[in-house]
Amino acid sequence: MRWRDAAVPLAIFALLAIAPFIGFGQGYSLTLLARAMIFGIAAISLSLIVGGAGLVSLGHAAMLGIGAYGVVVLDHARITEAWIVIPAAMAAAGAFAAVTGAVAIRTSGVHFIMITLAFGQMAFFATSSLSVYGGDDGYTLYNRTELFGTRALEGRLFFHFACLGLLILSWALVETLLASRFGRVLRAAHQNETRARAVGFEPYRYRLVAYALAGALGGLAGVLLANGAEFVAPAYLSWQRSGDLLFMVILGGVAGPHGALMGALAFILIEEWLAHLTEHWRLIFGPLLILCVYFMRDGMAGVLRRD
Amino acid sequence: MTEPLLELRGLHKSFGGLTVTDDVSLELRQGEIHALIGPNGAGKTTLIHQISGTLAPDAGQIVFAGEDVTRLSLAQRARRGLARSFQITSLLPGFSALENVALAVQARSGSSFRFFRPALHEAALNDQAMAALTEVGLERRAALPAAALSHGEKRQLELAVALAMQPRLLLLDEPLAGTGAEEAERLMRILGELRGRYGILLIEHDMPAVFALADRISVLAQGKVIASGTKDEIRADPVVRDAYLGDEEAA
Amino acid sequence: MNTTLLLIQVLNGLQFGILLFLIAAGLTLVFGVMDFINLAHGVQYMVGAYLGATLAAWTGSFWLGLLLALPATLLFGLLLEFLVFRHFYDRDHLSQVLATFGVIVFLNQAMKALFGTAPLQMPLPEALNGGIPVMDGLLYPTYRLAILGAGLAVAGLLWFLVERTRAGMLVRAGASNAPMVSALGIDIRRLFMLVFGFGAMLAGFAGVLAAPILSVEPGMGDAPLILAFVVIVIGGIGSIRGAFVAALLVGLVETLGRGMMPDLMRLFLDPSAARQTGAALASMLVYIVMAAILAFRPAGLFPARR
């Protein structure tokens, strides 16, 4: 990891840590910041497979959604302890990723994009048809996830720092994974698959593990998303959400999780700002997205690195 | 005599109606440099693809060190000690020269399902990678990204990667292709030093280089092995002279 | 479930499959020939439906609406190609996905801004209003049969164009070797535009056909787009024949699954659980079929010659 790649995220983390005390402490700002951080985690998880492994998934929202529905299923059964909910939701998302990935990763390129999109849609329709959990209308949580039986996560400030802590952990985890032996094989197979095979690696196994890990981490973001809104709906799994996540990664730059982090924060803030301007903010957002992709080939991280 | 290191038995491969490998049988002994020559389109590279595992033969058998590897993947064969270099340089452009080689060391040094320790700081991997780089004379370029190396240096790096795999057999597809006179000379010296330590199957167009390096030579034409033997046998073989060497040698 | 109901379901499935084919055909050609992944192909279907409904309302005639909507969708497709898509032909798939995603975001919202969120209605043409007895005591809507017929006719025409004409030969050659075709002195960009415009028009045609029986609303192209992706993945990218077979398969599986799954589940579960799992399974069925096919044939049923 280059020093400059770490400098930007560290500065962002520091800013997020002091934000509540420098004028962003009211409910609205904290909700927005939490949302930005949660999507930061989601984008970082996606960057592991897009940037690291070169697997362009257009179905990542399903991982968030399954994490969120993990909270719903347990909430319905009145199980709300974080130490049960979080591992269970992450395991569910990771398992879904492992099963669908086992099929999808056999293919590559545009096939992979379409198949992940299709599996994402499958998860979307499956949650829509679960009328026990509200079907299309969604499900309102009885209460937020509890920490050691306490309602700590209901405190806005506590939730802010919980999100921040998990964001930092996710970033550090993905950085570490990419720098490890495992990550080196992933990156090598991304750059030149034949070369990786020729020295003795089967990229499939590494990619599948990365895909499942990214799914589990996406599930974590889903748990937080459910808690932040205290509400979960199939819209969390919509394919447009997957597109948004992919855009966050590209906007920031695929070179590493720091790019995804920047991209997610920028995305949520731009979205919020535009939505304040006009009801039809998507009319601006769509062309903006196209222009960003066209002009910023290496994302924000690339712009920063250029001297 | 011990069993051959590599044995091809009746390999066949065709694309559509075009037969590119026609009943090829070949033996490569431990420690020898065996050159495979033949005109363009004779099917040399296709044969290397089948031996290394990137192409499946339609029929026939590939036996490596006494084991039938015909159905094994490229990666499985690599782990058994079959290393190949590519005719068109195939490296990891964004990795440093050292990391290109370290990846090959990593492939045979324990599990790569290790998730936390930074691979870049694993001394055991780096030391062995550096040794391979030194062997091909690239130790001063270790920190450069592979993309920044000259063409000749990339060929050297390919060789270093193959060596770092500690293979039993090297498949070298035109290692001298596109190199300048000086670079070619250096590569030839390196290859000569490898004799006896590895079995080497060498595809090369540079005839002086082939006759300088090879212990034995097989000649491929239109997918068939038309002759196989020592340098002198090949030089004297009328069929070969006719089909391939003829004019060059006379000149 | 009795045979009458089953027959209706089968006809519905085939008709849905034909619509999917019209969308998938353009998508698979555009991808096969240009190696360009176009998520915004679904909005062509939506735009077709809106244009059809609006033009029919203006002219007071379904037929005029249909007739005018076709060139209009063609022009619209070419306009998108000119403004956005062509600037991304030489970029990676990831950029193409996002750029065309941006087009969807914009156009879905544009439809909301222009027409509001309430669905538009397109009246059935007088001549096709009513039913045709397909068996004893079963009237099947004439219009749905007409969709089936029109779709089959277009499929036949498409097959003829691609397999039997010089332009079609170039399209097939371009799919397997674009540089070779440009070396022959053919303007590959013009060929691309031709394929693009034609594909857009087919999707628009599907949109107009569907307008009278589905609600015309923003985002209506998204779900068919994803099913069209499933179709071309199953059928094999670049293959018209594959798209046709897979589209009918997907249409049938989707329709029959929704109709029969809950009943099927009742054999194993109590009624309420059966309804739940049946509905969930039915909605997943198409994707499970896709996964099963890909597990055995990763390149699809009819991989295009490469």
UniProtKB/TrEMBL annotation, chain A:
Entry annotated with the keyword Glycosyltransferase: no
Pfam families in alphabetical order: BPD_transp_2
Keywords linked to the UniProt accession: Cell membrane, Membrane, Transmembrane, Transmembrane helix
Transmembrane segments: 6-24, 36-62, 82-105, 112-133, 157-178, 208-226, 246-269, 281-297
Bilayer topology annotation: Multi-pass membrane protein
Keyword Transmembrane: yes
Localization in the cell: Cell membrane
InterPro entries associated with the record: ABC_transp_permease, LivM-like
UniProt-recorded name of the protein: Branched-chain amino acid ABC transporter permease
Lineage: Bacteria, Pseudomonadati, Pseudomonadota, Alphaproteobacteria, Acetobacterales
Automatic annotation (TrEMBL), chain B:
Pfam families, A to Z: ABC_tran, BCA_ABC_TP_C
GO molecular function annotation: ATP binding
InterPro entries documented for this protein: AAA+_ATPase (IPR003593), ABC_AA/LPS_Transport (IPR051120), ABC_transporter-like_ATP-bd (IPR003439), BCA_ABC_TP_C (IPR032823), P-loop_NTPase (IPR027417)
Domain ABC transporter: 6-247
Annotated keywords: ATP-binding, Nucleotide-binding, Transport
Family matches, as PANTHER family: ABC TRANSPORTER ATP-BINDING PROTEIN (PTHR45772:SF2), CONSERVED COMPONENT OF ABC TRANSPORTER FOR NATURAL AMINO ACIDS-RELATED (PTHR45772)
Official protein name in the record: ABC transporter ATP-binding protein
Species per Swiss-Prot/TrEMBL record: Roseococcus pinisoli
UniProtKB/TrEMBL annotation, chain C:
Swiss-Prot/TrEMBL keywords: Amino-acid transport, Cell membrane, Membrane, Transmembrane, Transmembrane helix, Transport
Domain of life: Bacteria
Record has Transmembrane helix as a keyword: yes
Stretches that traverse the bilayer: 6-31, 43-60, 66-85, 97-115, 143-162, 191-214, 226-256, 277-296
Secretion signal, residue range per the UniProt entry: none
Pfam families cross-referenced by the UniProt entry: BPD_transp_2 (PF02653)
Membrane topology: Multi-pass membrane protein
Location(s) in or outside the cell: Cell membrane
Keyword Zinc-finger: no
PANTHER family xref list: ABC TRANSPORTER ATP-BINDING PROTEIN (PTHR11795:SF442), BRANCHED-CHAIN AMINO ACID TRANSPORT SYSTEM PERMEASE PROTEIN LIVH (PTHR11795)
Family: Belongs to the binding-protein-dependent transport system permease family. LivHM subfamily.
Protein name from the UniProt record: Branched-chain amino acid ABC transporter permease
Source species: Roseococcus pinisoli
